[in-house]
Amino acid sequence: MLSHALTGLLTCLALPLGLALTERSRTAYWTELVAPLYSSEANNKVLATAQSSSNPSQWPEYTDQPTRLYLLHERFSTLCPNDGDTTDWLSLARTWSNGLYNPSQDVLASWAHDVGFNSVPMMHELRHNPANETAKNAVLANAQYLASRYLSVVGCTKSWDRGKGDFEVRHMQIIDNMMNLQLLLTAADLSGNSTYRDMATSHANKTMQNHIRPDGSSYHVVNYDPTNQLLPQTRHAQLYRRTR
Ligand SMILES: *[C@@H]1O[C@H](CO)[C@@H](O)[C@H](O)[C@H]1NC(C)=O
Ligand SMILES: *[C@@H]1O[C@H](CO)[C@@H](O)[C@H](O)[C@H]1NC(C)=O
Ligand SMILES: *[C@@H]1O[C@H](CO)[C@@H](O)[C@H](O)[C@H]1NC(C)=O
């Protein structure tokens, strides 16, 4: 009896306390974590960085900055036009992505599997103006380059070339390549060429089969030989969990 009474008492005390804590942490989540992301202080930091250089040159490291600028433009021009923000985020976004247009073949080859990250600003430009030919041509050129890295026997786009002649030797496949699929899908929509969509789907299929561990985490890099056999050496350079 005593223990029932005690349980009852504890439940009466603990339940509202627990609910109150949940409510409190929900409020804290909003005020401490989410709200600051939308504050003018956060925007000022982005603005100060945007104004600190007009010629950013490191890709893909800086690709998130034009993306942020495009998103702020969308927020204040379309989503929250009454917020009274008068910064010309669009011009800043374009200035910051300018260096990504018309890369030479050497530059393009140096981007390799990062070509998808580097195409994100163009896809934002197309969200702003779907008729923008400059952005459209850039997306299609980048997708064409990415398609040239597709090895049909494996069914994936190749991440790196390790020296001359390596393309057919060892097919190294980094999980980051999943970030490239939107480039292929956008190119399929823009051009009507379904090869891009097939490549993206095949790449995703193959990644699901061999890149994902049973516990849902992923290998960093998976290697295939030219006959599509999975090679045992699987690298985990940037992963928390290094063992298979
Ligand atoms: C198209 O996009 C480019 C690159 O961001 C930009 O410089 C240009 O002003 C845009 N043109 C139009 C007509 O929107
Ligand atoms: C579709 O895209 C692929 C990959 O870039 C290319 O090889 C093929 O020639 C294109 N097809 C057409 C009809 O343009
Ligand atoms: C991808 O996998 C799905 C489901 O297994 C299959 O229906 C589809 O044909 C595959 N597509 C490609 C391009 O490999």
UniProtKB/TrEMBL annotation:
Q: Name one GO biological process term.
A: polysaccharide catabolic process
Superkingdom: Eukaryota
Q: Does the keyword Hydrolase apply?
A: yes
Q: Name one GO molecular function term.
A: chondroitin hydrolase activity
Signal peptide location = 1-20
Looking up SUPFAM superfamilies in the UniProt record yields: Six-hairpin glycosidases (SSF48208)
Keyword Acyltransferase assigned: no
Sorted UniProt keywords = Hydrolase, Signal
The family annotation for this protein states: Belongs to the glycosyl hydrolase 88 family.
Give the protein's recorded name.
Answer: FGENESH: predicted gene_16.142 protein
Q: Can you name the source organism?
A: Rhodotorula toruloides
